[in-house]
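Severity: low
Component: inverse-folding endpoint
Summary: output formatting inconsistent between runs
Steps to reproduce: submit the following structure tokens with default settings.
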């Protein structure tokens, strides 16, 4: 049976992650409070942030920025889209 969590993003019970997706205390907090669906939403949002801000992930400041945005996304009411971003149409 799948592990269920009370997802802080979806606001309901949903299937949880199988393992911590991020190291340390933040990873444990995500594991306990974020669903698989919400994690996938973050992955899409993170990709937009990386591309639109032209982040170089080998730089500590880029990784720090993404971690701060991850906390906002999951636990502080959401991370904003980059200024001027328009979602492409299919």
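Observed output (run 2 of 3):
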């Amino acid at each position: 049976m799948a592990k269920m969590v009370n997802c802080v993003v979806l606001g309901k019970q949903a299937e949880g992650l199988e393992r911590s997706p991020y190291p340390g205390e933040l990873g444990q907090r995500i594991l306990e409070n974020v669903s698989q669906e919400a994690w996938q939403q973050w992955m899409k949002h993170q990709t937009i942030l990386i591309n639109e801000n032209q982040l170089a992930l080998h730089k500590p400041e880029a990784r720090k920025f993404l971690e701060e945005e991850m906390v906002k996304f999951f636990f502080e009411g959401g991370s904003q889209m980059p200024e001027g971003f328009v979602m492409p149409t299919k």
